[in-house]
Amino acid sequence: MTIITEKHAKELLSKVLKYSKADEIECNLNGQVGGNIRYARNTVSTAGEESDMILAVQSTFGKRMGVATINEFDDASLEKVVRRSEELAKLAPENPEHMPVLGKQKYLESKTYFESTAKVSPADRAEAADASIKPSKKNKLVSSGFLEETVTFAAIMNNKGLFAYNTATNVDFSVTIRTEDGRGSGWSTRNFSDYKLLDTAEASSVAIQKSMGSVDAKEMEPGKYTVILEPAASVGLLNNMVNNFGQRPADEGRSFLSNKLKEGEEGPKNKLGQKMFDERVTIYSDPQHPIAPTAPFANDGYPLKRVDWIKNGVVTNMPNSQFWAKKTGTEYMPAGTNIIMQGGDESLEDMIKNTRRGVLVTRLWYIRTLDPQTLLYTGLTRDGTFYIENGKIKHPIKNFRFNESPIVMLNNIEALGKPVRINGNMIPPMKIRDFTFSSLSDAV
Amino acid sequence: MERREFIKLGGVGASALMLPVSGIAVSADQLLDKPMDVAYKKKLADIALNAAKAKGATYADARIGRYLNQFVTTRETRVDNIVNTESAGIGVRVIANGTWGFASTSNMTPDSVAKTAERAVAVAMANSKFQTSPVKLAPVKGVGEVSWQTPHTKNALEIPIKDKVDLLLTANDAAMKNGANYITSILFLVNEQKYFASTDGSYIDQDVHRLWAPFFATAIGESGFKQRNGLGNPVGMGFEYLDGRKEDKIQVSGASVGYKNSYDIVEDAAAAGKQLKAKLKARSVEPGKYDLVLDPAHLMLTIHESVGHPLELDRVLGYEANFAGTSFATLDKWRSKNFQYGSKMVNLFADKTQDYSLGNVGYDDEGVKTKQWDLVKDGILVNYQATRDQVHMIDQNESHGCCYSQSWRDVQFQRMPNVSLKPNEKDVSAEDVIKDVENGIYIAGRGSFSIDQQRYNFQFGGQLFYEIKNGKITEQIEDVAYQSNTQQFWNSCTAMAGKSDYRLGGSFFDGKGQPSQVSAVSHGCPTTRFNNINVINTARNV
Fold this sequence. Notes:
The complex is a heterodimer of chains A (444) and B (542). Chain A has 10 helices and 19 strands. By secondary structure, chain A is of the alpha+beta class.
């Protein structure tokens, strides 16, 4: 069993600590039990159950640090991993940026574990897949999908009094449904902590509708269009932007959040406090979000709470390291573990109804950086791209390659809809004007 | 090299670091203690295979793995982190009622191994209710007890940490002295000790070594910042790759140095510093049509994305439809025997046997002996990449040996072998390829890359861009990316260098599958020319 209780984790890590001869030792113990089922061509392809537990030991002598990991837990292995991390630490040069481990901390209540997810059986998974395959077959369509549920735990202990423990559950489902001739393709995804909320038949009905509706896609000229980005379409761009929010790269002059100062010029090195986005943009992280909760601590055991990264269009906080916070006299702010973007009350259907001309995008695929200074990204639309005219979906269109920046996107907001959970985040559908499509793709 | 011999050698000069584990003295920076005895692995594997058969499996395989990694990360003048990881366990895959089932565990007691095999059968049985076509395996004759090891002369895990740290910090210093403001350099060292056994009667013990030493340098100027990554390649060999031998360097006049089977990271870092300074002042490209000359460290990625992935049979058949996508290279195109994938000079082959390549192994992860075969011959699509349960779908009865799993924990499935472009039979040089170009761009190193889910439309950047005018490289330019369509692009291939210019590049962390797994794969090619390709300018004001 690789999910162990808080009591057992405490006992195990206390034992590891006893082997330590270092000035500081900090252990991260992570375990996962999960099951998955994968299907394609309307039949099950691979399925399995996986479990593992990994102990990472970080030992420090002065400012020298080493890390070793292991997944065996007999006494000899535990001692070995401690010794190995200590020897690595002794071999490492001093790191002038090393910071001491944290002492005892207090954490917010965790809301991440659901028994229903922990109880999923191979038969449950097979039935969930069947509920997706059956309607596809009935419609003469080809279904392929993936369902995976996991129970995880994370425990941290160090020799300065810190102990943290959390268990979490997660279920991911996604399905692609294509026409037999390959001319139409639709997709949908669902992500929950509680398996009870998953309805694979409902999710598949969306993919079926998009698949049948995307046959005979027409070509449209590349250019700037008003788009409605479903949450699955914008989450990748938002993730990339939030991952580039770090204070240190900004202060060092190598981020889109750097202030370009001329030689000899004094002033703030980053854009903290500047309004960079439309005032409707508020993005934060919150471990206690009722629909997309996360563990209440960071990897180093620092307590997580709600942090606003962008408030009403203004850069409000930037994540940093303990070292950089100390060096610059700012508060230590670890990166968030989810992205919660505020939206409005409009449903996706309402947004389509209120659009005179535009493009509905189901998802974006293969997003890569073109220019880190402007956060210019490229990628393609996929599995359901439609032309909207006078409030109605008029016809499917061929997929586009886009070359666009989330900074531009979040300045060109026309409307924000009701956020939904996607990949552990809460993202609203967005209506954006002047979104740049640069070329056409033949891919379906 | 014998392990015990190494322990003795490794102890020299590092005696203070010796530590007793299980009665054997092993230095902690070597990560090599306690390899599992082959006879014991066979015993455990047989327990799994027998337990699976007893529960009704018609086929079973067991993979016992010990995966050792070492990562050394440095930034400018300091070491950020040194990490050793070790993971061991067993994965059991079965066919029961004509359906696959899989289960894995890190608990390798005989009882746990038997139970894991039984769980795999239970998963197969549960899913067989919904199975429409039973799994059909291409025959593989059991090979008995055999072993294989990545050819190498210096086991990277045996090299002292100090040498690794010194090398990276020297490279960082060289970059910063020559113009970089920041640099991160990393050593990734991987050792897969994997044992495969199947009900076909194979017991295969393999010891696989790979390494990668990338760096990421940045320079800041008045109008912004520029980045330049290292031009070294990830490889399937030992630490000798970092010897930087003279004979492995290929200099293109006026441009960058390319590296063959060894890499001079310090020289490359120094060049990166200088090139960064030039990048900050470089002219932005005028968008339009250009003849492109692509160096191997760049073209390898274009091959990976536009040839490697679309010719994976699982994609073609629809097994990857929900994640990586499908493929434009459909079976009807292959069956026509006249689908012109590229121009007549384009010959692309697959293999898992090239020395120094990331895909090089003796046997794949379902016990198939590895080999080489053609994918595109004289421009025509002739074959795909397949595993045992797939080849019957393309009317073949011999697996291509393309099965791989990233660890004991995950189920094995079809992964890309090395896919490479055959060099020109005439051994012309990279400069010979450049000399006939009137208006072109020479691109070195891999940059931004993006391609659609059927592999038609792609867009690639690079690390270094040089203008070519009237057969000569003139100056560095910036903001270049090219957009094309796979078939159009390969049909515009008009010239390539010969075998002395042929080099392997690679991808260390190629992702595919659900749950997603990484694999490492190489792509060999010479410097190659493509005519009249659409180039866009990636600079933008926000």
